[in-house]
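Run log, item B.
One chain of 469 residues. Sequence copied directly from the ordering sheet:
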Amino acid sequence: MKVHHVFLAVLVGVAIALAQPYLGTAFMSDSVDQVKAIAQEITVLIPETNPQSGKTANGSGFLIAKEGNTYTVLTANHVVCRNQSEPCNDPRPGLKVITHDKQEYTLDFNTVKKLPEVDLAILQFDSNRNYKLATLANYDTNLNSERERQLPNGQIIREYGHFVFASGWPGINNRDITELKYRFSVGRLLPENKMVGFRIGPVAKGYQAVYTSITFPGMSGGPVLDTDGRVIAVHGQNEGRKVSNEASGDQRVLIGYSLSIPIAKFLNLAPQVSIPLNNVTVETNPARALNEDDLDAIGAEFVLAGMQEQNAAQPNSAVYWANQGNQYWRALKPPEALGAYEKAIEIDSEFYPVWYGKGLVNTFQAKYDEAFASYSKAITIIDKQIADFPRETERQERREWVVKLRDQIQPLMANSPPTATPTVNSPPPQTPPDSTVQPSPPLPPPAPTLSAPEPQPETQPETEPGWLW
């Protein structure tokens, strides 16, 4: 399916106007559409029902093997067990497995096997139905993860990270997710040297891969797929807590990133607990290079993900500009993110998510001294709020997370480079001239392609943006 730049711009505008609540497939090329189809078929929902309280929760997982009528599911250990003991001595009650065709299967907890040390486990269920199995990919994801690309205007920019897709079932939480619905979220996997400073989820539990997909509680245990539809990691944590703006209460900012366990960890540790791999399909070749159609399609999905999370904040509010900065940060475009955060600080210098966002961006740029100062400012603001609202535990949790990030980079501060990273192809955001009209949110700068754009119709306005993912 050919996705032309002008057509894409029109469709994105329509998506904003209609405020679509879910990522669709209208923008996908055939190959990316196939990745989503694979992800949906292999991903399972693992719901939990507490018979005493009646409360429900859920995690995710994916099918990796079949022997006879017995299927094996790989998931995060905390989806099925409340602790990391081996074997689990505190299983979650009432667990089931629900496949993509909405079939429910009772889970025999005796089939659960935890992998040593890491937050991974397998479980099994029986079915006479024929389900698609995941193909696991075990290769060096750092290959070509930083590369130079030439824009149609001849400018050379540096691009970071491969596109990846997170697949799973966000749990209903009465604030952000009100309907149990499958989610497919695009992001970029950070290169190895850019993950430094972000690995605060315990590496001992396997959390070594950091990526920018928007994920929610309930997606833990779900697959992280490459652009060929193969599983390269198991999602387990997200740092993307939404925080309320105390002034309004209902305006929220999505910050942070996602953490996963590389599939290589599972493959290396499985034999230690007698998990057979003879029925597991593993490929070791890197993902294929993307063509222009695929880059356009993935880029459109990336933009929609950001739009989906953007709230209705007024364009002259700190929340609005914090959200723009977060979209740019997730697109790995530091100058634009910092420009948006500065706009937010001009409006409200005591809105701590902005300082936290600056810390994330400066950490990505290896400007650890500046990141440390930003994290410290965020902590100071949170401390004031804790003193004013001592009964609210969420602020204390947020503080602990920011402190972890600050402490993580402290040993690296002496190595902060004196110069900034290369500039990119988009100018920093500008303040809307009329604050009474809510404009469409600025789109994250896309990852560019090497080939020139197709000729545009003569009726296209000269101000029409290019779409260079």
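Observations after the first pass:
- The first helix runs from residue 5 to 18.
- The domain at 313-440 is CATH 1.25.40.10 (Serine Threonine Protein Phosphatase 5, Tetratricopeptide repeat).
Flagged for discussion on Thursday.
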